[in-house]
Amino acid sequence: MSTGTSGIHHITAISGGPQRNVDFYAGVLGTRLVKRTVNFDDPGTYHLYYGDGGGNPGTIMTFFPWEGAPRGRVGSGQVVTTAYSIPSASLGYWTERLVESGVRFEKPRDRFGDTVLAFEDPDGLRLEIVAAEDRRAGYGGPTPAEHSIRGFHHAALAVRDAERTVRLMTDHLGFRQIDEAENRVRLAAGDGGPGNLVDVMDASGFPRGGTGVGTVHHIAFRVPDEETHLAVREEVAGLGHDVTPVLDRNYFRSIYFREPGGVLFEIATDPPGFAADEDPDHLGEALKLPPWLEERRGEIEDVLAPIRVPGKEEA
């Protein structure tokens, strides 16, 4: 049994209307819609998952589309930037693609030796593309495979007690400190490559963030199996954190707790994965419900607006 976590599993954010969200993440960014399901705690709302071709942990961005919900406020106690990884030679392609798609972006900058392009999605969620050495396979979709997004590069956390957050992550969650610059402490897990990186930023003097459209709800870190999952839960609970029971999310098992800096952390298992209830070649094409919600399918489908993936027929 391994100990600790091995990098980012997924990041979950709040968006506005679901179709605009699909148009941007499956269309502009070219990530694959790997699962369309519902928020298990609010079944009248979609839960949309985007990732690489196989829906692998470390590539999964998920959304609760709450149309008409108020905008959130970015601040301390949040994931303030979600960064995607692209091949080192693909920055020119992505610059042109964002221009052609009408996405405004900041001037490219250097951080930790990589070139970074910062922009926002249609709901104001802060994103970056990082041109880095990344040997993971690309997913083509509407973008050429050689230029496609490889998954996450890192996530940036703004916390009100950076020292305690770093200590928790390095002493108990399997991360190690590898660099420091620009008020950021860079942590790495696993092999330390893209998808396994987290930047912790000291935001002790900033107002607390407010949950809403355009903000991240939580970040999940991955473990390989249920045995490790339970061991991490026991260790974190032993530190005095209020940890949830293990929850069945159908595609992984989860626990949640709030770290000392205010960010909601989830620990998620790699298995069983997104092919648990769907053929890998047809991920995300149909509305999938957990067994305990199947008897309500008609009611749920009546509430959810139909969505269309760019380049595919409406499901």
TrEMBL record:
SUPFAM superfamilies: Glyoxalase/Bleomycin resistance protein/Dihydroxybiphenyl dioxygenase. Keywords: Dioxygenase, Oxidoreductase. Pfam families: Glyoxalase. One of its GO terms (molecular function) is dioxygenase activity. Residues 7-132, 151-270 form the VOC domain. PANTHER family: RING-CLEAVING DIOXYGENASE MHQE-RELATED. This is Ring-cleaving dioxygenase. It comes from Rubrobacter tropicus.
